[in-house]
Recover the amino acids of this structure.
């Protein structure tokens, strides 16, 4: 057993709007939103409680793709208090030009520029969504990226988006100011320390080394892993699920790395998706495309690749992309490491190849196409009820390698939402090999593809609709990449 395990604390410490907070005996699974409102910081609102509306958006200082501190918008309704330890949080009350003061009665010239813009354009009617929009815009302001995407995770029921977009445009047009918040970033620290916290008879561990994860798991075989908590957070906020022991992966060094050789790209399981978006942009266009449609910025700032595979959801959006790219997963436990093809990872509905006390360490993606390839075609598609911040009805990702004669050397068709697990259309892939990439070939496999899966009918779409999408998305791919 590792002797370096963190000393057990009964005090949870972090900062809100520059004020130090010390909590004793608070449940580490209480959400940050619950705590904010419980402590009288009622500027932060609860809308849906499940990450969909953005009313609860706050800003947390976290590491960006460059490893430096950045303001990051996050959904406070999904973040367990344990995960906030050692962090700095900002809410709408704390961003007036006297950081730390209360915004009640503040004159407009004391408001933060994003708050002032919202007032001036009439971007707030009932005001319920306003603090969330403000905090998303606040984070974007310091990133120099104030656009529609900055508020893709925020919903407004009454004002209409026009005045809110005007506020965003006004902020985007204004010269960025070098203010106290900029200086705060320059001095902030983003490295998370190892934590062992006990509150309300619930234990929250945040190891910094993989070995400590295994040690903790041996101590507590009943423990649950948590990474960004964008999936597990729902269990806490909506289903009031009780977790006696949580082991957080978000500070584990071995799981936070991105590395590459000319042949392989390796992405750590605990790297947040927004970091993957930035660091790896342009390497795999089909991954870029799917990340663009994955949830919204608040969720991507927290969600991880390991969590997306760990949920084993049949409608997870990244598995179809990774299946199409022939990715493998590196798994580890106290007895050692193993690497398996992702295609062998999903065993059944919400079941994976993970053995007890085994963790996903990373995902490895081969970078080189099949030998002899003169052209690689690759793209991903997602069909959902709404453009952003929604899970898919069907997701698909395709890779076709063509030789000099425009014949198919290699084919991968990955799908989500059509079976109990993310899945490849293997029979159709085999039929495609050696065929010309043509409309005739497409028509020859059409029936096979339509019958490849037996999807379910649910609230999101009928089985028949899903079957049609399986074919239509492949046809769309052909039209886009003739
Ligand atoms: C509003 C909203 C929108 C969403 N939109 C999408 C979407 O568009 N597409 C999509 O695919 N998903 C979506 N999701 C689901 C979720 O965001 C993703 O599945 C995300 O990738 C989960 O990552 P996480 O780090 O938050 O996982 P967590 O919630 O921390 O963990 C999820 C599960 O994985 C396990 N786990 C985590 N890391 C590991 C690891 N390294 N090894 C082993 N097990 C592990 C945990 O024990 C847990 O069972 C959405 C969720 C919300 C709330
Ligand atoms: S309350 Fe709706 S996203 Fe948190
Ligand atoms: S919900 Fe009323 S102003 Fe947006």
């Amino acid at each position: 057993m590792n002797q370096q395990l963190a000393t057990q604390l009964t005090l949870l410490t972090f900062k809100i709007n520059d004020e130090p907070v010390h909590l004793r005996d608070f449940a580490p699974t209480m959400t940050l939103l619950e705590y904010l409102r419980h402590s009288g910081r009622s500027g932060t609102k609860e809308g849906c409680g499940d990450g969909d509306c953005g009313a609860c958006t706050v800003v947390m200082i976290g590491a960006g793709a460059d490893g430096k501190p950045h303001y990051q918008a996050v959904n406070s309704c999904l973040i367990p208090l344990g995960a906030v330890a050692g962090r700095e949080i900002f809410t709408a009350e704390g961003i007036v030009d006297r950081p730390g003061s209360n915004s009640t009665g503040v004159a407009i010239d004391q408001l933060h520029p994003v708050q002032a813009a919202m007032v001036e354009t009439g971007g707030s009617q009932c005001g319920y969504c306003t603090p969330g929009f403000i905090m998303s815009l606040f984070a974007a302001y310091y990133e120099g990226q104030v656009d529609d995407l900055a508020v893709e995770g925020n919903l407004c029921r009454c004002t209409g988006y026009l005045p809110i977009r005007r506020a965003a445009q006004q902020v985007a047009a204004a010269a960025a100011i070098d203010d106290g918040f900029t200086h705060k970033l320059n001095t902030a620290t983003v490295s998370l320390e190892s934590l062992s916290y006990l509150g309300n008879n619930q234990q929250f561990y945040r190891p910094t080394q993989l070995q400590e994860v295994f040690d903790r798991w041996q101590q507590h075989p009943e423990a649950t892993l948590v990474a960004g908590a964008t999936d597990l957070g729902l269990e806490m906020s909506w289903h009031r699920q009780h977790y006696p022991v949580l082991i957080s992966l978000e500070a584990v060094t071995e799981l936070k790395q991105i590395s590459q050789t000319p042949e392989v790209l390796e992405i750590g399981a605990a790297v947040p998706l927004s970091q993957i978006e930035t660091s790896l942009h342009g390497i795999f266009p089909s991954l870029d495309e799917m990340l663009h449609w994955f949830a919204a910025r608040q969720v991507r700032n927290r969600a991880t690749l390991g969590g997306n595979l760990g949920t084993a959801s049949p409608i997870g959006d990244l598995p179809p992309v990774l299946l199409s790219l022939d990715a493998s997963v590196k798994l580890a436990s106290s007895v050692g490491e193993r690497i398996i093809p992702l295609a062998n990872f999903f065993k059944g509905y919400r079941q994976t190849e993970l053995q007890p006390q085994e963790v996903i360490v990373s995902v490895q993606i081969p970078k080189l196409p099949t030998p002899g390839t003169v052209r690689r075609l690759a793209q991903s598609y997602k069909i959902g009820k709404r453009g952003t911040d929604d899970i898919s009805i069907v997701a698909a990702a395709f890779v076709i390698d063509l030789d000099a004669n425009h014949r198919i050397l290699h084919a991968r068709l990955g799908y989500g939402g059509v079976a109990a697990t993310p899945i490849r259309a293997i029979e159709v892939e085999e039929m495609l090999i050696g065929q010309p990439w043509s409309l005739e070939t497409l028509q020859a496999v059409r029936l096979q593809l339509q019958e490849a899966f037996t999807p379910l009918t649910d609230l999101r779409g009928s089985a028949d609709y899903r079957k049609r999408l399986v074919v239509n998305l492949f046809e769309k791919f052909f039209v886009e990449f003739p």
Notes: Residues 99-103 have pLDDT under 50 and may be disordered. The first strand starts at residue 11 and ends at 16.
